[in-house]
Amino acid sequence: MTNDPTSEPNLEELTYSATRTGTRSILPDNMISVEEARARILEVFDVLPGVETPLDETQGLVLAQNVVAGVTIPPLPNTGMDGYAVRADDTAGAAYDRPRTLRVIGYLAAGAVFDGEVRAGEAVRIMTGAPLPPGTDAVVPFEETDEYDSSTSDSKYTQGQWQQTPRDEVRIDVEAKPGANVRQAGEDIAAGEMVLRAGTVIGPAQIGVLASIGLDCVRVHRRPVVAVLSTGDELLRPGQPLTPGKIYDANAFSLAAQVRAFGGVPRILDVALDTIEALTARIHEGLADADLLVTSAGVSRGDFDVVKTVLAAEGRVGFWTVRMKPGKPLAFGTFHAPQNRRVPHLGLPGNPVSAMMTFELFGRAAIFKMLGRLVHDAEAWRRPTVRATALDAIRNTDGRRFYARCHASQDATGRWSVRLTGPQGSGVLTSMSLANAYAICPEDRDVIAPGEECEVMLVDRESPPRQPLPADAPDRA
């Protein structure tokens, strides 16, 4: 687990072992499934500790404690309508053609209490949220009285006080039943009641409940800090002048955005050059306070040995090939960190689409586990899926599970269809920016033909639709 120095990832025969001199074992030829890779990764993570957090910062976090109410909500019977608090018996038989008339003995605003008791034949003008005066058991809304018959109001609210202008009577046009328009004491929450259990994901409604019982902070599992590191001599930070042979580092920023979207706190490190000293320094910087270190590039067979050498020298890292496209090469393991910690490391491919796709499938689940979102639902990290009709051919060329970037939409009958967002190469990052879903072509399918159904993972429902490609556009999937 992340804070257990004795914990080790399940790397088995795929462990890449090396010393600082660069010796290494032979990488396996067999590939593992997406499910197996994710299961091995999740074994290493644990739920992060609970911390007291201000209520307005808890959106999307998970309660680390049971919450018991110390107050009753509502504390007293109160009105759910502006109207007149009455004794229901006094309105018996009231109708528009035979109204009842009651004597008005006071006005009551929300936040105040009525001094006295309402007796037979009496009523109190009352505003929404005000406690019911003693002796009353129903509220007649203004709309069912003669409140609006006059062209001028007979009461005003200024400087925090009701100005009681003369109104001796009110006409009641409709019979009120006991309890009409009354919110009973404790109908929402009773003092001593458990209102939210540990493991609850906090959303707007939960925040409202916590505020209603007077809590301004609550204990939640903290957000994981994820250090994001791009490697490569060719990389420049956006904003720097572009020079021959260089490219801008997109991976750090797209991965950091995913971290934030999944509920973590990203920390982008400076680019690490392809030297042992530079990469080692960046890794140490990332391990200082991170719960997860994410790197991109340097995990495939053709990458610089320096990356693998440093990763193996600084921790225990395995290199896998996963049966998925894009994103076949993957590294995973743990690093020794300050305070006797072990920090998991997820090494992603360097191609930008591959990096994002692998983090979607593996990093999202890891963050959800650290947040505590998998405690009561081990599948909570999953995206919603639908069956959709393919409008383009989705070609699978090499027996891996293919995640095709596409735009999904529904017609008037609710039927789903998907269209590819253009060329599907692992370096075509615009194919991700235009996608709101991934169409999944299984390992044993060569092609999903137009008109056939496929499974589709919905990702971002707000993405704009892709403009259709010309009919003669080349197929570059």
The total of beta strands comes to 31
Major sheet description? 7 strands, mixed
CATH fold-type name of the largest domain:
Molybdenum Cofactor Biosythetic Enzyme, Chain A
- Mean pLDDT, to the nearest integer, reads 86
pLDDT < 50 runs, ≥5 residues: 1-28, 156-164, 466-477
The CATH superfamily of the largest domain turns out to be MoaB/Mog-like domain
CATH architecture of the largest domain: 3-Layer(aba) Sandwich
**Termini, distance in Å?**
39 Å
Structural class of the helices, strands and pairings?
Answer: alpha+beta
Q: Roughly what fraction of the amino acids lie in strands?
A: 25-35%
Could you give the topology of this structure?
Layout: E1 15-16, H1 34-44, E2 50-54, E3 62-63, E4 67-68, E5 78-79, E6 83-86, E7 100-108, E8 122-126, E9 138-141, E10 155-158, E11 161-164, E12 169-172, E13 182-183, E14 194-196, H2 204-212, E15 217-221, E16 225-230, E17 235-236, E18 247-248, H3 251-262, E19 265-268, H4 276-287, E20 292-296, H5 305-314, E21 315-321, E22 324-325, E23 329-337, E24 341-348, H6 352-371, E25 385-390, E26 394-395, E27 401-410, E28 416-420, H7 430-433, E29 437-441, E30 447-448, E31 453-458
Parallel strand pairs: 7-8, 16-19, 16-20, 17-18, 20-24, 22-27, 25-28
Antiparallel strand pairs: 1-21, 2-15, 3-15, 4-14, 5-13, 6-8, 6-9, 7-12, 10-11, 21-23, 23-24, 25-31, 26-30, 27-28, 27-29, 29-31
Helix pairs in contact: 1-6, 3-6
What does this structure look like?
The structure is a single chain. With 477 residues, this protein is α+β, with helices and mostly antiparallel strands. It has helices at residues 34-44, 204-212, 251-262, 276-287, 305-314, 352-371, 430-433; strands at residues 15-16, 50-54, 62-63, 67-68, 78-79, 83-86, 100-108, 122-126, 138-141, 155-158, 161-164, 169-172, 182-183, 194-196, 217-221, 225-230, 235-236, 247-248, 265-268, 292-296, 315-321, 324-325, 329-337, 341-348, 385-390, 394-395, 401-410, 416-420, 437-441, 447-448, 453-458. The chain has a 7-stranded mixed sheet with strand order 1-21-23-24-20-16-19, sandwiched between helices. A 5-stranded mixed sheet has the order 9-6-8-7-12, with no helix packed on it. Helix 3 (251-262) packs parallel to helix 6. It is elongated and about 90 Å long. It starts with 14 loop residues before the first strand and ends in a 19-residue tail after the last strand.
